[in-house]
Write a structure and sequence with these properties.
By secondary structure, this protein is α+β, with helices and mostly antiparallel strands. The protein has 8 helices and 12 strands. A hairpin with a 7-residue loop joins strand 1 (about 110) and strand 2 (about 120).
C-alpha cells in the first residue's frame, strides 16, 4: 500500500478546515479563519500521524473509535470561543455529523469497484485531494450566501434612495437623497432637518453663503465624536420623488454636514418620504 504523506496531510487539513468552519457557523459562532486554520493544522498533524501509526500498529477497535472521536470532539473547542457549554456540545455534534456526511460523500464519489474484488477508496480526483475539493465547495457555498446577503442589503438600501430637487432663490438643483430613520434632527421650532453634503450646499447657495444674506440657525448635534453644532438654513421648496408621487416640502430646513456624505447628497428625515401631513398639502401626482 502506497501512502503519499503530503496528499494525506493536505487532505486532512482542507477537510478539517472546511468542516470546522461549517460546524462553527451552524451554531452561529464567531468563525475566525486564522483560529480555524490553526486548529485544522493541528488536526491534520494528528490525523496524518495516526494514519501512519495505523500502518504499523493495530489498536483495539474500541480504543481506535475513542481516539478518533475524542479528537473530533476536541477540535471544535479549539476552533472558536463558546460562551455556553451547550453551544460547544452542539458544535462538536455538528462537526461529527459533517464528518459522517463527508465520509459518505467520499464513498459515493471516489470509491472504485473492481470485478471480483472489493472497492478501493481513494482520496484524490484528477490528482486533486478530495478534501481540497470539499474545501472549495464549502468556500463557494458560503461565498455565495454572503454575496446574496450583500446584494439583498444593497437592494434594500437602494429602495430608500430618492431623486430630489431643491429650489432656492430661483435656482433648481437635482440631488440624490437617502431616507434615514436615524435622522431625528429638528430646528428649534420642531421642523425636521435634511442634512446636505457641503458640495451640494455650495452649488445651491453660491455667493450668498459667504455674504451673510442667508439667515440660518444653529442646532445641537450629538455624534460618536461628541456634541457639536450644525448650521441650518431654509430653502423655498424641496421635491422628493418616491413611490409614484412627489412629496413637496415647503420652506424645507437643510443642515450643512461637517463631513462628506459619500454617494448621497442628502440624508432625509424618514417623514419626508411618507405621505404625511407635511407633504400632503403640496403633493402632486406624476
Amino acid at each position: 500500500m502506497t501512502v503519499y504523506v503530503d496528499l494525506l496531510f493536505l487532505n486532512n487539513f482542507c477537510a478539517d478546515g472546511a468542516l470546522l468552519y461549517c460546524a462553527v457557523k451552524t451554531v452561529k459562532g464567531e468563525a475566525k479563519l486564522w483560529r480555524i486554520a490553526l486548529t485544522a493544522l493541528f488536526g491534520a498533524v494528528l490525523g496524518t500521524g495516526y494514519s501512519i501509526f495505523g500502518l504499523y500498529y493495530t489498536l483495539p477497535a474500541a480504543l481506535d473509535i475513542f481516539i478518533k472521536y475524542g479528537v473530533a470532539a476536541l477540535l471544535p473547542l479549539l476552533a472558536a470561543k463558546f460562551k455556553k457549554k451547550r453551544t460547544y456540545v452542539l458544535c462538536s455534534l455538528a462537526f461529527v455529523g459533517y464528518m459522517f456526511a463527508f465520509a459518505g460523500m467520499l464513498t459515493a464519489l471516489f470509491a472504485r469497484g473492481e470485478a471480483g474484488g472489493e472497492g478501493d477508496l481513494t482520496y484524490t480526483y484528477q490528482t486533486l485531494p478530495s478534501g481540497l475539493l470539499v474545501l472549495g465547495a464549502v468556500a463557494f457555498s458560503f461565498g455565495a450566501v454572503k454575496l446574496v446577503r450583500a446584494l439583498s442589503k444593497r437592494r434594500s438600501v437602494v429602495a430608500l434612495v430618492y431623486p430630489c430637487k431643491l429650489y432656492f432663490r430661483g435656482k433648481e438643483i437635482s440631488a440624490k437623497g437617502f431616507a434615514d430613520t436615524g435622522n431625528r434632527l429638528a430646528t428649534s421650532s420642531g421642523k425636521p432637518v435634511a442634512v446636505a453634503d457641503r458640495a451640494l450646499v455650495y452649488r445651491l447657495l453660491e455667493d450668498s453663503l459667504f455674504t451673510g444674506n442667508t439667515p440660518f440657525e444653529k442646532i445641537g448635534v450629538r455624534t460618536v465624536n461628541g456634541n457639536s453644532e450644525m448650521k441650518v438654513f431654509f430653502i423655498e421648496k424641496m421635491e422628493i420623488y418616491c413611490a409614484g408621487r412627489v412629496n413637496i416640502i415647503e420652506n424645507a430646513a437643510v443642515g450643512v454636514s461637517a463631513e462628506r456624505l459619500g454617494e448621497y447628497d442628502l440624508i432625509l428625515p424618514h417623514s419626508f418620504t411618507e405621505e404625511g401631513e407635511e407633504g400632503k398639502e403640496g403633493e402632486k401626482g406624476i
